[in-house]
Amino acid sequence: MATAALGKNLKEALFEWEGRDKNGKVVRGEMRAGGEAAVNASLRRQGILITKVKRRRLSGGRSIKQKDIAIFTRQLATMMKAGVPLLQSFDIVGRGSTNPRMTKLLSDIRADVETGTSLSAAFRRHPLHFDALYCNLVEAGEAGGILEALLDRLAIYQEKTMAIKSKIKSALMYPVAVLVVAFVVLTVIMIFVIPAFEEVFQSFGGELPTPTLVVIAMSKFFAKWWWAIFGLLGGGTYFFLESWKRSEKVQMAMDRLLLKLPIFGDLVHKSVIARWTRTLSTMFAAGVPLVEALDSVGGASGNAVYAQATEQIQRDVSTGAALTTSMAATGVFPTMVLQMASIGEESGSLDHMLAKAAEFYEDEVDEMVKGLSSLMEPLIIVILGTLIGGIVVSMYLPIFKLGAVV
Q1: Strands 13-20 and 49-55, how do they pair?
Q2: Rounded distance, CA 154 to CA 148, Å?
């Protein structure tokens, strides 16, 4: 009994080995074992004369991103559909990963599965990388004997979700980058350029125009207190982001504000609807009961307003109310989504209708991103032209005044 417990607790590692087979041919490979002695013993039983055993280092590397998990899911689904055994699939994916941390994660999961743990339970031991939705779908696939089909559906879901996030980030990247560059340029102008103009103006001896005095005063203030300004901006931004991440009240207030923004609000709203319908469609198609599926839908939407609405829908549905009626009572879902959900409930094809709604809103997000990219360029040019142009004109007003006097 003690030996079994010891074997179970022994942490395995990945070893690379090299040796010669019975015919004297050089062979190489990899093996998971508790130590070099175990590798040597296992290979000797296979008639291989070991010449070198080296433990592969799995530490370091970049952090595991959602993209890494999505790629792993797609690869695992593809290999299982091709008939590759589960443990061998983990070996292939782990060796193909370029991220040592991802390789270590897959190695740990494989070791759990090899000792008899279910795949969903092995995933649940790593909640930072596999959320409740992921684990619930895998568990449903294991229970129904359709794991490869559920992994394929899960891979599609992750790819669609990442595509929406990528499109929104691309829409925001350009204006943010331009505004950061503009802030740097204005800082250089305020600290170095305007003081040089001020020295020239002092030699004129005349009274400076009001706009020039205002800009010079702003430059002096900025040059004196730049460290405090940067500190407040950096500290304020960090504090705000941390509050947004940790405080439910701040999350709710900001998510409500995002949905009401004049330009980006509609984009955020449609992306949230797309993720909400895509998630519920995926869960329901996997055979997860509606009440249990709603547990994962709210968090997957990425918006506190819809997470709260989903909790209300779950309470109503659990007491016997229809899904469409509960969705309409929240007042946050568009008419089209409600109608498609109603048709899906009546026809028994709720997952199909929700998937159609998700596709529609994903296409809408794509079109809005393209339109916003075209709209933001002239808008940013006007803003930067007003700021920098105003400073330039203010600095040249005394020169124009001097030229008129001469």
Answers
A1: antiparallel
A2: 10
CA-based nearest residue to 13, from 30, 28, 35, 29: 35
pTM, two decimals, is: 0.65
Lowest mean pLDDT among 93-97, 108-112, 331-335: 93-97
Tokens 């130590």 belong to which residue? 35
Which residue's entry shows tokens 């040019």?
Answer: 381
Residue 406: what pLDDT? 45
First to last CA, the chain: 104
- Say if CB 106 and CB 72 are below 8 A apart: yes
- Of 40, 70, 69, the closest CA to residue 53 belongs to 40
Dig out the tokens for 152 from the structure. 């394929």
Residues 38-52 pLDDT 10s: 778 777 877 788 888
Asked whether 64 and 99 are in contact (CB, 8 A), the reply is yes
Q: What is the pLDDT of residues 178-190, one digit of tens each?
A: 778 888 888 888 8
pLDDT for position 36: 76
- Between CA 213 and CA 54 the distance in angstroms is 72
Q: State the helix-helix crossing angle for 194-204 and 210-246, rounded to 10 degrees.
A: 160
Q: Residues 103-139: pLDDT tens digits?
A: 888 888 888 888 888 898 899 888 888 887 788 888 8
